[in-house]
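ugh finaly. both done.
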Amino acid sequence: MLEQFPYCPTLHARVAEIKALTQLPAATKDRLFPLIIARPWPNAKHLNRTWKKIAEALGNRRFALDLDRMRQNSGGKLAAAAEFDALFVSRNGFANYYDTVSDITEAIPVLRISGGEATQFDAQAHHIDDLDRGLVVRIEYGIVTNPIALVEQVLDRFNDVSFFVDAGWSRDILSREAWVSAIVARIARDNPEIEVVISGSTFPDSFSNIGDRGTNPVGERYLYDSLVRRHNSATLIYGDWGSTRPPSTDQVPMRNVPRIDLPKQSEWVSFRRDKELDEQEDYSDIAQRVVTDIDWPIDLDIWGTYTIEWTASGEPGAIRSPATAAAARINIHLHRQAFFGANDLVVDGDEPFTDD
């Protein structure tokens, strides 16, 4: 199912992620298979707005369709909220969810997990058989009660299956390597040909200690590399969260300190306003530092780098908010990881994109 994809990111259907995905060059999109965690689109009356946004981003490319638990039972007044909640109803093997997947031609079903296990597994299996598109099983750290039992249950029933083993978000993701490794070992023991995506996130939750410039390693890469060395018979594929963190449940807004992140293949370089150096520095000032930095990729012509350049020169399309800064970062990160270790990192910068 995933044999031609070197990169399988997990992305929430939030504005920044979808915009970053939309603005990728076609050659980059062809190299990734995303697992998209859906939620109602902001202010949309109906849930189908989310499916339209995903289609605009990916075209006719396949993706795995998961659901954002954080948005369940949100109490939203628009019909989209109720339509979204219906997808979590377990009756008849999550029939509402599988009917929705059936209507989205490019969507691959993700096994529904409820209460830490695959609820109504046999009924779900019938839906999956009827769809005949294969299956993705996402095993999340701290969510699945018994990962090994789930793996055995799935392997006893399905052949056309791929696993996303998700270590979650952590500042120290390598501390979860043993948990991931045990799952990989069980899959590879009898089915070494089955694809296993190693996913997770270490994107920082604080930048207060970096001054005006700092770096953070892409810890997900180190986790993946370590597992590849340990399990040389397994079919492992790199995945991450596209340089994002989990959705926040905190209702108190974070203090907005202008920051622009420049993804490299194995680290993030962050440029931030340092009030001790310059309390007035804005996004334009920061962008000017970014484009003259030693790590600026002068030959990488994609939307994310263009956006930073527009910001530095004060042109339309410039970064004026954390959301646009995040979209630019995610766009560059997705492209970098899709071409990790490849020779064709530079793509045609004349490829059209929208500026909205």
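ok and the 2nd:
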Amino acid sequence: MHIAHRVADMKESATLAVGARVNALRAQGIDVIGFAMGEPDFDTPPSIKRAAIHALDLGMTKYAPTAGEKSARESIARKLREENGISCRAEDVTVTVGAKHAVYMALQTMIEPGRGDEVILPTPAWVSYRPLIELAGAVCIEVPSSIEHGFRVTAAQIERAITPRTTAILLNSPSNPCGIVYPAAELKAIVDVIAANPKIAIISDEIYEKLIFPEVLPSVTHWSPGSDPRVAERTVTINGLSKAFAMTGWRIGYLCAPGSNGRFAKEVIKLQGQMTNSIPSFFFPAIVEALSPSLALEVEQMRKAFAGRAKLTHRLLSTIPGFKTVESTGAFYAFPHIGELLGRVSPGGRAIDSAQAFADALLDEAHVAVVAGEDFGVCARSHIRFSFACSTAQLELGIARVDQFVRSLKSRTAASVGV
């Protein structure tokens, strides 16, 4: 059976691949500490679960409208208007099978295969963005940042990357994998550039918006590009319940596209009708409950816990020789640079010649799982990603293992003579 090149040539998700390896090792009885998955360790708040259970008891087990029940879409639109300043209606919203599904459909709807469309992607960036851009038929134009600049690209860099073929820019703040939040002024400067180029759309992935840490950086705030009237008509805002509400397994995302009187949203919904249709119908009351004011306290408690872990993770990683880190101001990731360690040899004799080799040796020899930086962008090749979506005890134990592993690395010369 023939396999299409666009699928055969597509990389497997690096984060999911590491997760699968961790599960396989744990099934063998190996005590693996996992810092690979971007999944909160908290349980879904009880009232959200009760809302879904009650919906099941009421018989909400039939097909729902493709874009979702009206009450859920209205709750999402109200949230976007009141919290994000985005002028939108329920008709501009569709509920998706996670935020990844929303990104996929946005790209599929706006990209014309074979036309040479380009999508600008500030990097380091989540491992799925590039494959989704390329699967849609566009060319991914990486705009690299650096740890020295806090993993943030500048408006001038974005402006230089624009060509007559630029169709969209994909933004993500707070960021996966970097764990940083763009200052509003810097994000607005990038939007100024896009506002001056009326053919360019913005896809703004804001899945981590509620996980920002003024405890780390008091001035940090979230700002949505879709709130700027100059670009509101050509901004697709993407979000979901997975991260802030500890609902990863529910697979609930959403997309809002208010432009052209909802025309883009209508086309996305048409595509969705040929793909997944709606999410399970009994999830819609859970969405309404999650976005109600009564959940604010529980979400805030989880946010505070992540803020504390961000501080702890930075402190612990900063003591490891050869690690260079930026303190996380959002999401639940740290993205240390390990370039100084490349060229060494692990205790098990593995040459550490890349971030991937480091991550593989760390998992096999120290039983700690991290994600290598290669698939997060060319500029990320000497980095590894830590997720601190786990307990304080796990962080302390796991990073202690990493520290011990790093201190046991040898130079190639020393390894070759058995020192």
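summary for the 2nd one i guess: The CA atoms of residues 130 and 140 lie 6 Å apart.
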